[in-house]
């Protein structure tokens, strides 16, 4: 499996308390802190923006704000903006050059020229960042020193690892190498 539960973004790295549960297929990326007693469940992605896009279309250079939700059949056109925390209902179309916000989302105002320039430059920056992530993900685990990072971020030590090694597993469950 190529999945990495924890991943740095440049100098930003996740921090996970050893008293937290993180499902093996969750992803925690960048400057995210998971405290004691927290639980990050199967398939969750934590990276700071928390937007949910479900069965929708988002055109190039559209902007989706932090914690926004865009539902099935919705269509966000180029240079449109969904404000932070907005809920875009099913089958809603947000025209180019408009800012929508609220719950449910509705037209608020026109996009400014400064925002339109920001959308374009932000798209380029994210594209470049995606290339960095693709390069990092293409490396094998030895190159990334992933085990060291995982142990550090989970505050696990040699004693903890030796306890895991000594666990008796059912015969049909393979032991990790």
Report what the structure shows.
- The chain contains four helices and 17 strands.
- The chain has a single domain, classed as UDP N-Acetylglucosamine Acyltransferase, domain 1.
- Helices cover 26% and strands 23% of the residues.
- The model has no long low-confidence stretch (mean pLDDT 81).
- Strand 16 and strand 17 form a beta hairpin.
- The longest helix is centred in the C-terminal third of the chain and has 26 residues, at 113-138.
- With 177 residues, the protein is α/β, with parallel strands linked by helices.
Largest sheet, in brief, is:
4 strands, mixed
Shape: globular
Q: Tell me what the CATH architecture is.
A: 3 Solenoid
Q: What are the low-pLDDT stretches, counting only 5+ consecutive residues below 50? A: none
| Percent strand | 15-25%
Instruction: Please report the distance between the alpha carbons of the first and last residues.
Output: 13 Å
Radius of gyration equals: 20 Å
Looking at this structure, what is the CATH superfamily?
Hexapeptide repeat proteins
Q: What order do the strands of the largest sheet run in, or round the barrel if closed?
A: 10-13-16-17
> What number of domains?
1
CATH level 1 class label: Mainly Beta
Number of strands: 17
- The helicity comes to 25-40%
Individual helix count: 4
Instruction: State mean pLDDT (0 to 100 scale).
Output: 81
- Under CATH, the topology can be stated as UDP N-Acetylglucosamine Acyltransferase, domain 1
Instruction: Return the structural class.
Output: alpha/beta
What are the secondary-structure elements, in order, as H or E?
A: EEEEEEEEEEEEEEEEEHHHH
